[in-house]
Amino acid sequence: MIQLTLIELFKIIKRPRTYIGFLAIFLTVGAMQLAMFYEGEELISIAIQNLENDFRLEGKIINTNLMTYILLNSLIIHIPILICLVTGDAIAGEASSGTLRLILQRPYTRNQIYLSKALSGYLYTISLVVFLALMTYVLGYFLFGSGDLIVLRRGVTVLSSNDVGWRFFFAFCSGTLSMIVVASLSMMISSFVNNAIGPIVGTISIIIGLNIIFTLGAPLFKDIIPYVFTSHFIKWQYFFDFEIEVEKLKLSFIVQLGYIFVFNAIGMYNFNRKDILS
Amino acid sequence: MRIYSVLFLTVFTLAIYGQSIVAKNKILLVKEKLEKVPPYNCDIKVNIDVSFINIKERTGKMIFKNPEDIDYKIKGFAFLPKNEMGATTNDLFNSEFIAISLGIEQGNEIIKVIPMDINSEIVTGQFWIDSNNLISKMILITKDKGSYSAELNYGNTKYDLPSDIKIVFDVKNQKMPALLTGDLESYSEEIQDVNKVSKGSIKIKYFNHKF
């Protein structure tokens, strides 16, 4: 199983599209941080202009913690696109190039092959999120330095700079789990089709569609929203509340694990019955 | 009868005028005391109590040069009162004003101060002044920023500087646009009374004064 996963990882490393994600994060984070370096004060003052009317604000608002928090929001749409580029290609790409037939002739079960592809996809996902975390925090630290984090969520929460490290750690863990759900979904779709474009477009369409429906129609669907996987893409924000709602985070963790299990089960079921002869 | 009426009105007017002069002199004594304070710096602890703001106690330093020029060096980020009470009262006392004594309350003389300038930012101020000519409480009504009040306590600091101050002010409930904050879940939450004015307070403790 480890051998299979290493082989799959080798394939991922060898594919040029793997590096599109890292390059995109590098460029996006770099551009965003530079933009904030030059125009950040004005942009932030738009967000806090009401506060500035009532209070005298003392201290540095823009710092690496705020930049990392802002850029973590890219987990909603941008990072899923980059993940699908690789995980969506895992089975469908090999089916379209004809190599899937070769792989399945080897003395491994289809479940083992599917799981090794899923595991290597998850490792790619984790590496992408770690790269995002390092890029945002390290570059932000050099450009802006450290400081207290101001979170404009359910009012205004100010967190001391020495109280945010563990919050970011768990926020990135939560974000990684959400991205693994995305990877599982695209792997599942990938098992259904023989064209790599399908899983990429399909996964992104599902994510964008669900985000739009459940954001704009939130009052209408508020009872089912906690069970829709896209609603958990922003659960990392809970780690920046003054009083953390542990029960909601536990539910989020269980729901997302459930989705990972279901997507993989459907994917494996379908992969076991996939026709490779025609 | 007419003579008695004229006499009564004259005595009454003189009494009111006399009372106003006494009240104004008392305010001028307070002002004189404030003006004698030399530049200094001290450590501060700031606590804020506003319904939509979550922040722990902040510590730092206050550098006082004059009532118009007060600087803060806070560890991290902090919310401080927008209008420095010192500067505001200074503006009020430095302009032409009428002072009316409203009586005594728990050993403090209550004096209402009304600026003569119709364009003054402060519409009216009410001060509770103790036997040492120190302001123990004040309420200021402003044109645009609502009202705010302050309660001051004094320790044994030189120049009779306050050891702590609690400022209570009007503040509007605020809700930031979700697309700006990334808080997309707020769409499904019930809309609060945005822009409803409520009371907020900031407590500042001053210690370790260095003149």
Percent of residues in beta strands of chain B: over 45%
State the share of residues found in helices of chain B, binned by percent: 10-25%
Mean pLDDT of chain A: 85
Number of helices of chain A: 12
Q: Order of strands in the sheet with the most strands of chain B?
A: 4-3-1-12-11-10-9-8-7-6
- The structure class of chain B reads alpha+beta
Low-confidence stretches of chain A: none
Overall structural domain count of chain A: 1
The major pleated sheet of chain B works out as: 10 strands, antiparallel
Shape type of chain B: globular
End-to-end Cα distance of chain A, whole Å, is: 28 Å
Number of domains of chain B: 1
- What distance lies between the first and last C-alpha atoms of chain B, to the nearest angstrom? 64 Å
Whole-number average pLDDT of chain B? Answer: 79
Please give a structural write-up:
The complex is a heterodimer of chains A (278) and B (211). Chain A is mainly alpha-helical and 278 residues long. Chain A has helices at 2-14, 18-47, 49-54, 64-72, 78-87, 89-97, 99-103, 110-144, 165-192, 197-216, 218-221, 246-272, and strands spanning 55-58, 149-151, 156-159. Chain A has one domain. Chain A has 12 helices and 3 strands; from the N terminus they run H-H-H-E-H-H-H-H-H-E-E-H-H-H-H. Chain A is elongated, with a radius of gyration of 21 Å. Chain B has one domain. Chain B is globular. The interface between A and B is medium-sized, with 39 and 31 residues. Strand 1 (55-58) of chain A pairs antiparallel with strand 5 of chain B.
Quick rundown:
Chain A is mainly alpha-helical. Chain A has helices at 2-14, 18-47, 49-54, 64-72, 78-87, 89-97, 99-103, 110-144, 165-192, 197-216, 218-221, 246-272, and strands spanning 55-58, 149-151, 156-159.
